[in-house]
Give the backbone structure.
Amino acid sequence: MSDKEIKNKIKVFAPATVANVSCGFDILGFALSNPGDEVTLQRIPDGKGNVNISGISGDGGRLPKEVDENTAGVAVKLYLKNTGISDSVEISIAKQMPLGSGMGSSAASAVAAVAACEALFDAGMPLIDQLKIAMEGERKACGTAHADNVAPALYGGFTLIRSYQPLDVVRLPVPEKLYCVLINPDVEVRTQSAREILKQKVSLQDAVIQTGNVAGLISALYSEDYELLSRSLQDVLVEPIRKILIPVYDKMKYTALENGALGYGISGSGPSMFALCEGRESAEKIVKPLNEVLDNVGISGKIYVSQVNQDGPVVKE
Ligand SMILES: Nc1ncnc2c1ncn2[C@@H]1O[C@H](COP(=O)(O)OP(=O)(O)OP(=O)(O)O)[C@@H](O)[C@H]1O
Ligand SMILES: N[C@@H](CCO)C(=O)O
């Protein structure tokens, strides 16, 4: 018998994430310290391998309780299938962020679920295989198995998806003084719709600008060069199209940069936006002016100030 304590119930937190990070569409992302989702799993050793969602809170009744429709359900089912575990599992989800927010809401549930499975069953599944499972949750939520939310939520920190086929994830360093301000206006944008409006072809000239910025951003993370980071936070491919879905985007961006942010962009597929700043003081300085811009147009919203979360999912109890 293993000397590890066998648990029958476990609760795991997985963080919200900022995907794309301006120039890195579908390849870059980082995790936030808060908010995040909590998923609790109860193991039932009946040899039936059934998966059931017994409760969801914080979603206003909007999330599917059907296992095959919910990213957490998809992840648990696939984990049991891939490991050959025959216990049944009851899932309960505490949503702590809005849906369709661009904060990696669907990814946080999938990652919390797969990490909770691994903590509960201890099958020794490599992170890359856990990631593939969480990506199937994303496929269910928005039609594509993009990994730039699930990878940072699972690995923690800043991640690069170097390749999708084969899947190749690189953890990037996080400069010590890097802070994120995440602005979540009370507007909903579904990832699937925000992907459908994108152009499928880009010009060579834009590709050159974008790859230069990605390379600059990655170099800046390694060298902790905040000025290079600032120059590199530019997106010529996606932001010009998607910003029309976000009220007062240009004004918000102008205000953040005027008040000292290093860069400003759309978080994931929006409507959330993020600013990166050097130091907590600089991050806190932009909160009030950004709130004023939202107030002036009568849009409510929430603003979070957070360091990059290096931990990934955390077992709560
Ligand atoms: N556990 C879950 N949490 C959140 N959304 C889920 C979950 N399970 C299924 N979904 C579905 O996923 C869709 C929301 O995913 P979507 O990718 O649009 O939002 P998001 O994850 O907040 O955005 P983004 O990926 O841009 O950060 C909704 O249709 C929702 O019903
Ligand atoms: N890279 C994805 C992230 C979605 O959160 C997109 O921009 O569609």
